[in-house]
């Protein structure tokens, strides 16, 4: 996957292999060598595109976009926050439904990379407009990529951890950071706890060393260089706020998310991460205790154009262990980002002992994010997928789809909407207190067309049919 904005490298995969291959055949005649030089890379590139990962669709290379039957479950659509400005199209990097335990109930937490701002939106009553409360902006959140609620200092209120990208577009400079916005009685106060690193795409909390305080898992996407690490909480520093020590887990270009859960059911918290740049992989880091981790490769594909776009931890089949959802479809090419038949969403079913079995549950061109929840209020876990790179030149292609779980892990896709286009983030949560999960999504408009813009959009679920 070679994205120009999240940082896919655009380098040829397998370069050293071809160099070694040519070295072996260098004694052959110049004519044979010339044929090998010309034909082998071409044929191999074509073959790689045809090789699906486990659980993938095996259709043709290109198609005219994905569309589905209209959802039988009704949704009420509305804009959260200001209407999009065509002169400055929205760059929303992350949304989620959260409750900051401030007495206002659940709201929509938003990372706005265009405005360099992290905010939460609430509404006072059903039908009312959403009010914005700014948590961080400017130098505290330069191009925020992700935000996560956490009581980092153990004082009983909810702070917010921000993964700072520093630049939406490809950049291997050390522009990333991790900022904690500490909530006090007089407002929000920033603490830069990790600095001088490449672009940071995720930060997630967990007590990894079982010492009673909150540590952090961090994904540093970078560009040509990236890493996955955890930050050990060393307790209060001079100002009474925790200090942190970084510990590397894995070096690779393109870690995008770092979900935390007890994946092996042994009572401690592990870490997973999707790596999507030079390689397309999912890694697990088994917590061995005492701050030690064992690295495990959970999934990989040799289709380097599949475009992993995130990683979500959820007990999708409700069997007591935590599975993973892998949206695939980041297909940001130089000229035009065509949807591919191997795009969609994979369910990595947890079979125990860090063994995950992939199963394709959705085909959606240009899938960029997924979330799990109970959309129809029937008690099982449904999935919502959004697309950044569907075939937007074809009217009616889906930008957001929900996958109805029949309770036996068979999923039926329903199209929720075909606009806004270029959706890159989605979250689920019950915003109206009716018992089913509503959908919120954010658009990042950095490529044409610009005729169906959307910043943050909410679809309120109509509940059980």
Properties at a glance:
single chain, 465 residues, mainly beta, 5-stranded antiparallel sheet, 4-stranded antiparallel sheet, disordered N terminus
Radius of gyration: 22 Å
Mean pLDDT: 87
User: What is the strand tally?
Assistant: 29
Q: β content, as a range?
A: 35-45%
For the record, give the distance between the C-alpha atoms at the N and C termini, rounded to a whole number.
39 Å
Strand and helix map with partners:
Layout: H1 15-24, H2 30-50, E1 75-80, E2 92-98, E3 107-112, E4 117-122, E5 131-137, E6 144-150, E7 159-164, E8 176-184, E9 187-197, E10 200-206, E11 215-220, E12 227-236, E13 242-251, E14 255-257, E15 260-261, E16 270-276, E17 280-289, E18 292-301, E19 312-314, E20 323-328, E21 344-350, E22 356-362, E23 367-373, E24 382-387, E25 400-405, E26 411-417, E27 423-429, E28 438-443, E29 456-461
Antiparallel strand pairs: 1-29, 2-3, 3-4, 4-5, 6-7, 7-8, 8-9, 10-11, 11-12, 12-13, 14-16, 15-16, 16-17, 17-18, 19-20, 20-21, 21-22, 23-24, 24-25, 25-26, 27-28, 28-29
Short description:
This protein has 465 residues and is mostly beta strands. It is built from two helices and 29 strands.
How would you describe the overall organization of this protein?
With 465 residues, the protein is mainly beta. Helix content is 7%, strand content 43%. The chain has 2 helices and 29 strands. The chain has helices at residues 15-24, 30-50; strands spanning 75-80, 92-98, 107-112, 117-122, 131-137, 144-150, 159-164, 176-184, 187-197, 200-206, 215-220, 227-236, 242-251, 255-257, 260-261, 270-276, 280-289, 292-301, 312-314, 323-328, 344-350, 356-362, 367-373, 382-387, 400-405, 411-417, 423-429, 438-443, 456-461. A hairpin with an 8-residue loop joins strand 15 and strand 16 (270-276). The longest helix has 21 residues, at 30-50. Residues 1-38 and 42-62 have low confidence and may be disordered.
């Amino acid at each position: 996957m070679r994205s120009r904005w999240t940082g896919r490298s655009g380098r040829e995969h397998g370069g050293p292999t071809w160099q070694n291959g040519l070295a072996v055949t260098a004694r052959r005649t110049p004519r044979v060598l010339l044929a090998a030089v010309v034909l082998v890379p071409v044929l191999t590139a074509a073959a790689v595109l045809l090789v699906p990962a486990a659980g993938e669709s095996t259709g043709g290379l290109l198609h005219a976009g994905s569309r589905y039957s209209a959802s039988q479950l009704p949704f009420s659509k509305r804009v959260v926050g200001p209407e999009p400005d065509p002169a400055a199209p929205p760059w929303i990097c992350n949304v989620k439904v959260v409750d900051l335990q401030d007495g206002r109930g659940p709201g929509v937490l938003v990372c706005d990379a265009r405005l360099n701002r992290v905010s939460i939106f609430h509404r006072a009553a059903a039908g009312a407009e959403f009010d914005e409360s700014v948590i961080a902006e400017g130098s505290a959140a330069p191009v925020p990529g992700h935000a996560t609620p956490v009581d980092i200092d153990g004082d009983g209120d909810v702070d917010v951890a921000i993964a700072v990208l520093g630049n939406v577009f490809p950049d291997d400079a050390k522009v990333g950071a991790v900022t904690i916005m500490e909530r006090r009685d007089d407002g929000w106060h920033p603490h830069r706890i990790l600095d001088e690193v490449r672009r940071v795409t995720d930060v997630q909390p967990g007590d990894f060393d079982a010492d009673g305080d909150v540590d952090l898992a961090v994904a540093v996407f970078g560009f040509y260089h990236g890493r996955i690490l955890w930050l050990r909480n060393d307790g209060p520093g001079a100002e009474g706020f925790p200090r942190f020590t970084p510990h590397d887990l894995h070096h690779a270009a393109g870690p995008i998310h770092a979900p935390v859960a007890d994946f092996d059911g042994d009572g401690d918290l592990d870490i997973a991460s999707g790596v999507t740049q030079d390689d397309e992989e999912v890694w697990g880091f088994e917590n061995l205790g005492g701050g030690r981790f064992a690295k495990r490769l959970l999934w990989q594909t040799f289709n380097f154009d599949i475009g992993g776009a995130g990683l979500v931890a959820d007990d999708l089949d409700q069997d007591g262990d935590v599975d993973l959802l892998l949206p695939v479809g980041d297909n940001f090419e130089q000229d035009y980002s065509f949807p591919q038949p191997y795009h969609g969403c994979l369910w990595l079913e947890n079979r125990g002992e860090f063994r995950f079995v992939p199963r394709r549950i959705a085909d959606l061109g240009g899938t960029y994010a997924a979330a799990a929840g109970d959309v129809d209020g029937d008690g099982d876990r449904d999935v919502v997928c959004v697309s950044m790179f569907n075939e937007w030149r074809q009217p009616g292609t889906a930008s957001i789809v929900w996958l109805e779980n029949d309770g036996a892990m068979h999923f039926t896709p329903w199209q929720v909407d075909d606009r806004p286009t270029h959706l890159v983030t989605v979250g689920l949560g019950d915003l109206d207190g009716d018992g089913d999960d509503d959908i919120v999504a954010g658009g990042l408009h950095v490529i044409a067309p610009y005729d169906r813009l959307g910043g943050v959009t909410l679809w309120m679920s109509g509940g059980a049919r």
